[in-house]
Design a protein that fits this description.
The protein is α/β, with parallel strands linked by helices. It is built from 10 helices and 7 strands.
């Protein structure tokens, strides 16, 4: 079957267009696994950049992981960073190009493990960047190893009996950790498992970009996401796991909001 043309996609007589793609997200075949939530996260980022009108001056910094090809999907300038170093690279980009809107797109292993130091210090300095943190509690691209956010009892290729508090410690709640830092202007945790949660995630993401644009400091938003492949379950079961297992362990909410018109809420 041939791909639909622009003419095919135009509303016909009696039809009303209620949703359309936007120019910030490239139309291409995805490399993500079925049921992966990266696609939803990409759509939210592209919509926010388009609605804020900042895409022409936006620079994406992506590192290693499932999102290593993120720059193929977004119609913005981009820089690929070494594993874990996205916040450090984004710091240099933002300081060299102060007029730009700069964001990182990182997984839990990338940002909260190998990149812990770079992430925390960029946030503590209040770098004017926005960090999009995709938390699926596992290393996805490299084979399903334990991540910093892996839950107690969760089986991975490196915790075959389940994560144990005595051996590996507990999961890092990165949003709460960053929210304590003076340089962080906005920190929120959202989920991508339901329509309601996706809508809330978009509002939080917009705030995370607005604090950067307004020069208030570091913006951070965490997305609780699924990894059906490495969780060894189908997409429906993965969504259920987010609701029943992940959200109780990683509470949703805004942990700091110093945006204009915000609640000035600290963790």
């Amino acid at each position: 079957m041939n791909a639909p043309t622009a003419e095919d996609l135009r509303p016909r007589e009696g039809e009303e267009l209620v949703f359309d793609t936007n120019p910030v997200l490239n139309e291409r075949v995805t490399h993500y696994c079925p049921g992966c939530h990266h696609g939803i996260a990409h759509r939210l980022v592209s919509e926010v950049l388009n609605e804020l009108g900042v895409a022409p001056r936006t620079i994406l910094v992506a590192a290693v992981g499932c999102a290593t090809f993120t720059y193929d999907y977004f119609n913005v300038d981009s820089v690929e960073a070494p594993h874990g170093r996205a916040c450090a690279v984004a710091t240099g980009v933002r300081r060299a190009r102060p007029e730009a809107v700069v964001f990182t797109y990182q997984g839990d292993g990338d940002m909260a493990a190998i990149g812990t130091g770079e992430s925390i210090h960029a946030a503590n300095r209040g770098e004017r960047i926005t960090a999009v943190f995709v938390n699926n509690t596992v290393y996805g691209m490299t084979g399903g190893q334990m991540a910093p956010t892996t839950l107690l009892g969760q089986k991975t290729t490196t915790t075959v009996q389940g994560r144990n508090m005595g051996n590996e410690g507990g999961p890092i709640r990165f949003c709460e950790l960053l929210a304590q830092l003076d340089g962080v202007a906005y920190a929120a945790r959202c989920a991508l498992d339901t329509v309601k949660h996706v809508r809330e995630a978009k509002r939080a993401l917009r705030k995370a970009f607005e604090v950067q644009i307004d020069g208030l400091g570091f913006g951070f938003v965490e997305f609780l996401s699924g990894c059906p492949t490495n969780w060894h379950m189908d997409p429906i079961a993965a969504n259920k796991r987010i609701a029943e297992v992940m959200i109780p362990a990683f509470p949703l909410g805004v942990f700091k909001d110093r945006s204009k018109g915000g609640e000035a809420k600290d963790a």
